[in-house]
Design brief:
210 residues; alpha+beta; Aminopeptidase; 6 helices; 27% helix
């Protein structure tokens, strides 16, 4: 959307972003949602890693994350472990990967390209800093519709081959992400029975040191 502006997180957005979380994630447990105090901390830790999408001055989208050294041999983790209770203090300035903690779009503005803008902003950041790529736990909001028909592993397998469409995972795959595995008890979310998919985007322009 040409009329949407992306800016980095700043203190003046903290209260609005806290309200925005609760609008975008109605099925998440309250302790999984970030509040104004968390967003103020993000301004200190790594403001460049958090993108706020504005339309006529109103927050309509958010993409946040930080750099980490991610061990794919021991990939199992929870959302809270990675975000340190919402404070993002796991950020490592020289970390090889960008951990995507959150991408969200206001329900009234979905389907208008805001999510793609946020994903592209992340990719540009990763390329600018010459990081290996982006890793995240992808929530699975489309699963409840099929819960009585199949388990979540079967559902995700069908999403991977394009047999089913998930509102989030399918969009992430369209943006170049691969599903590399599943994360059990990743996040307290009634929509996905607490599961998430481990999703990865590799930076095609990454140049190894030396």
């Amino acid at each position: 959307m040409s009329d949407v502006t992306l800016v980095n997180v700043a203190p003046q957005y903290a209260d609005e972003l806290a309200k925005f979380q609760r609008i975008c994630f109605p099925t998440l447990a309250d302790f999984e949602l970030m509040n104004a105090e968390h967003f103020l901390k993000h301004c200190e830790v790594f403001p460049e890693g958090e993108f706020v999408a504005l339309l006529d001055g109103k927050v309509v989208g958010l993409g946040s994350g930080f750099f980490v050294d991610f061990d794919f041999e021991h990939a199992d983790h929870t959302f809270q472990e990675m975000i340190v209770g919402g404070y993002y203090t796991n950020h490592k300035p020289d970390g090889a990967w960008y951990y995507g903690a959150d991408i969200s779009v206001h329900p009234e503005f979905r389907g208008r390209g805001i999510g793609r803008l946020l994903y592209n902003a992340r990719k540009e950041l990763v390329k600018r800093y010459n990081r290996k790529g982006i890793v995240a736990g992808g929530v699975i909001p489309g699963y409840p519709r099929y819960r009585d028909q199949m388990d979540i592993h079967t559902y995700v397998d069908k999403v991977k081959i394009g047999e089913l469409n998930d509102p989030t995972l399918s969009m992430q795959m369209a943006n170049g992400f691969e599903i590399r595995g599943m994360l059990e008890n990743y996040i307290d979310d009634t929509a996905s029975d607490n599961w998430a998919a481990l999703i990865v985007w590799e930076n095609p322009d990454y140049v190894a040191d030396g």
